[in-house]
C-alpha cells in the first residue's frame, strides 16, 4: 500500500506525517520553525521533519524516502510550487520555489511534490475526514501565529485567484492596531499570536504585569506558543486573559463579516490556539459573532477542528489524492 508525506508549515512549528491510502497516520514528527534565516533554512527543517516522520513510520530508514508523493501546506500565496509573501516565516517576503527546493533538500527524483495553502488544505481535511463531513459549505478559521481561513463552497475548495480566505486581513477597526502585514485594523492585528506577542511585550515594557514571558523561559520556548497562552490563562494571568478576550472579539467580528458575505453552513475553528483552547473558546467566538451577524436568527454552528494538530499535515497529504 503506497504511503504519502504531509507537511504543515506553521509560524512556530513544522508538523510532518506519513499516511497510507486510508489516511491512517503511520508516523509523525515535529520541529520548530526557524526564527531566523530565510526560505532555504525553513526548507532544510521541512526535509528533516519529513525524514523524522518517515523513520517513525518505519520508512526511509536507509536514507531513501519510499513515498508515493509529498504534500506541503504553506502560508502565503501559492502558485505552481512557488510560495509568495509568507510573512509569518523568517525572511520570506518575496517568491520562493519551495517544491523545487524541497526536492533538492530531500534528494528525491520523480516523487510528486504538491504545495497548497496551509489553511485551505487543513479545511479540506476537516471537510473530507473531520468536523465538516456533514456539510457542503463551510468556513475553516485557523487561529495561530496568524489568522487564516479556508473555504468549501458547494462541496469544493475555493481558492479564488490564489489569495482567497485571508480572513485575518478583514478590517475590524478603521485605523486600528498595526498588523504584521503593515496595514491597520486587521483581525490578525488583534488575534494573530505573533501580533499578540508584540503587543504583550509593549504593554509589559509600559509596566503591565504578566507571567507570559516567565512561562516562556521556564518552558524553554523562544516565542509565546499556544501552550504558553493556555498556561497563562490557567493561572488567571490578567494581561493574557485581556489579550485573548480582545482576540475573541476581533475573531467574532471578522468571522461574522465573512458569514454575512458567504452564508455558509458551518464554521470550524482550528489552528494552534483554536485547537488548544478548544470548545469553550469556540463557544465564546460564536457568542462574539452574534451581534455582527445579519442573519442573527440562524447563526452557523461553530465546531472545533476534529483532526487536531495533525489536521494540516494530513490535509497536505490529500493534495496527492484529489477528490474525483
What does it look like?
By secondary structure, the chain is of the alpha/beta class. It has 2 domains: about 5-120 and about 310-320, ATPase, nucleotide binding domain (Nucleotidyltransferase, domain 5), CATH 3.30.420; about 135-305, Nucleotidyltransferase, domain 5, CATH 3.30.420. The chain is built from 10 helices and 13 strands. The protein has helices at about 40-55, 100-105, 120-130, 185-190, 195-205, 210-220, 225-235, 240-260, 270-290, 310-315, and strands at about 5-10, 15-20, 25-30, 70-75, 75-80, 80-85, 95, 110-115, 140-145, 145-155, 155, 265-270, 300-305. Strands 3-2-1-4-8 form a 5-stranded mixed sheet, with helices on both faces. Strands 11-10-9-12-13 form a 5-stranded mixed sheet. A 3-stranded antiparallel sheet has the order 5-6-7, with no helix packed on it. β1 and β2 form a beta hairpin. α3 packs across α10, α7 (about 225-235) packs across α9 (about 270-290) and α8 crosses α9. The longest helix has 25 residues, at about 240-260. The chain starts with a strand and ends in a 7-residue tail after the last helix. The mean pLDDT is about 95.
Q: Which key phrases capture this entry?
A:
single chain; 324 residues; alpha/beta; Nucleotidyltransferase, domain 5; 2 domains; five-stranded mixed β-sheet; 13 strands; 20% strand; globular
Radius of gyration from CA coordinates: 19 Å
**Helix content, binned percent:** 25-40%
Structural class: alpha/beta
Low-pLDDT runs: none
